[in-house]
Amino acid sequence: MTVEFRVPSHTAEDGTAGNSTGFGEFVRHRAASGELVVQPRMGFSDPARMRAGLLATRRAAATTVGTLTVDSYTRVGDLAAARDALRAGIALNGYPLATHPRETTAQVLAGIAADDFPVQVRHGSADPGHIFTALTAAGLSATEGGPVSYCLPYGRTPLEKSVDSWARCCEDFAEPRRPGVRPHLETFGGCMLGQLCPPGQLVALSVLEALFFHRHGVRSISVSYAQQSHPGQDREAVRALRVLCARLLPDADVHIVVYAYMGLFPQTADGARALLGEATRLARATGAERLIVKTEAEADRIPTVAENVAALEHAARTARRHRAEAPAGADDDSQVHAEAYALIDAVLNAAPDIGRALVQAFKRGLLDIPYCLHPDNAGRSRSYLDRDGRLRWADVGSLPLAPLVGAGRSRPVTSGELMSALSYVRRTFDGDPYGELRGRPRGKAVEDR
Amino acid sequence: MGKAMERACDDARHSGVVIVSSLASDAHTWNLVYLQLLLEEHGFEVVNLGACVPDELLVAECLDRAPDMVVISSVNGHGYQDGLRVIAQLRRRPPLARTRMVIGGKLGISGARDGLRADRLLDAGFDAVFPDGPDAVPEFERYLSHVFERVAS
Ligand code: B12
């Protein structure tokens, strides 16, 4: 590992110059020539394996960007546990970015991370100061997160603390470290708990987090949306995301990133591939610029490098068969758009500062994630899957959606019904819609109304 | 109570307090929500401690509530080492020395190959280990009816 770190080829002074480089610019240019940029969720604790994974991603037969996914100890700030595990030779579920010496990370990236292969750090930390410090020290300028989406699904840190911490990190991160390289930040708000959150709220959170990043100085932004349970509803969601960003963030460089399904994944290789294919078609049909893939090992364990490459190449092949549709116009009369708009409007009116507004909104139940156990989530909203697999509200709690969806009240679900809803996508793609082949889960798809 | 719920409750009625908990580094919660519902359907009163439970909090809650059983669930792949660390701390407290404690989920990062290390968790003080797989939940339910007396409903 002795290759020189590649020096950026552009040297514009101003971070907003048209010829600046960085993650956002790379994706925009590739998308402009009709390509879909694909990316793994990849992280290994062994530096040699991490490097091999990045190299294989770069060399894959696909238009790729690289990923450094951080392990759980680093996410929760338990650096002592990360250090102990490395000493004991225990493999972690990601790369311990704040524990490996800075030189080690430089060697992992040397000759691989470059203008034509930007690498993004994906973590999941509500209090990410140490991670931002480590990633900028490593010369990286793209990462992911958000004050809500990296807090509520990722532990018990109070939302208020996460908001303050993310505000500080954004402001510091927004300062370009290298001339011409614009720092890039992606929202995780379009995913939340991965499953059973109706798309209107996912879109609203992704947009609200993008607004938060923008207010704190970040100008190169991507907004996420995770594939859910119904292709038509997912298309509505991505289009709504595009329309709302164009309206609310006219002066930012924004692209859309679709995540292949983030809930219980199919257990068969065929099912996993088919679901990834469906996610790729979602990205193409909506003109999304980037896709994050999942592998055949998803249901089971951390995937190998080879499994990641296979997923990237499968998505790239599928993308080549489907042209990118032009992004939708300025109008959108879909149900997802209406719900997202109502939520964003209510939150922005809750307080002048967007960070305080988010905290207020969760306190008052104007935002409320179904089944989320975090102490700052109201926990009064409930969702269900309708006959066709669309995600709908069974109970809106205090969400300002009653005029749009009616104010239903739900009864408690059983463990079998919950499992049935969680595994709907898995069963559908494994070709086992009623869960008969594996003896689990019990019960059929729920209709909780 | 819904029909399905009544049916589930008829299967086996127990009583007692169960603590359901994740481990310090693990943020996953669908597993916890699911296990809570399952245990409630079996008649238990459940205290769900949620995600990323620091060792000290788990110990304090166990001392405080003196539960009939502690159910630890982890799927992020750090469950072996985090489980070994926390069981030592729990068992060290005399009031918890004999409390029933089980662990389950995706405990390592290598899938089926991780099963081999379950013995170490038992040696360290867990009463039972339920590695992820199609049989994990049915075996857990069999275990419940084996070790807990049923209450007439
Ligand atoms: C949803 C999800 C998430 C959501 C979680 C949101 C939330 N708050 O819950 C988000 C996106 C936030 C997330 C984050 C991460 N995740 Co995740 N996630 C999943 C996913 C897709 C589904 C999990 C789920 O919802 N299960 C539903 C529940 C009901 O089922 P279950 O968890 O499988 O539990 C069942 C059994 O295991 C068993 N069981 C579990 N515990 C116990 C205990 C007992 C006593 C018994 C009897 C049974 C039992 O019973 C349950 C019912 O059958 C899985 C992959 C998959 N399964 O498809 C990955 C997965 C669990 N995640 C994984 C990882 C590594 C992470 C991250 C570290 C990021 C990363 N590196 O990829 C972070 C975690 C950060 C942290 N600090 O822990 C890995 C774990 C790898 C491993 N163990 O080898 C998985 C397997 C994906 C993968 N293949 O890489 N994740």
Automatic annotation (TrEMBL), chain A:
Coiled coil: none
GO molecular function: cobalamin binding; methylaspartate mutase activity
UniProt xrefs under SUPFAM superfamilies: Cobalamin (vitamin B12)-dependent enzymes
Pfam families (UniProt xref): Met_asp_mut_E (PF06368)
A GO BP entry: anaerobic L-glutamate catabolic process
Keyword flag Nuclease: no
Domain of life: Bacteria
Protein name in UniProt: Glutamate mutase-E chain
Species whose genome carries this gene: Streptomyces lydicus
Taxonomic lineage: Bacteria, Bacillati, Actinomycetota, Actinomycetes, Kitasatosporales
TrEMBL record, chain B:
PROSITE patterns named in the record: B12_BINDING
Residue ranges occupied by any B12-binding domain in the UniProt entry: 15-151
GO MF terms held by the record: cobalamin binding; metal ion binding
Protein's name according to its UniProt entry: Glutamate mutase S-chain
Organism: Streptomyces lydicus
Lineage: Bacteria, Bacillati, Actinomycetota, Actinomycetes, Kitasatosporales
Gene responsible for this protein: slgE1
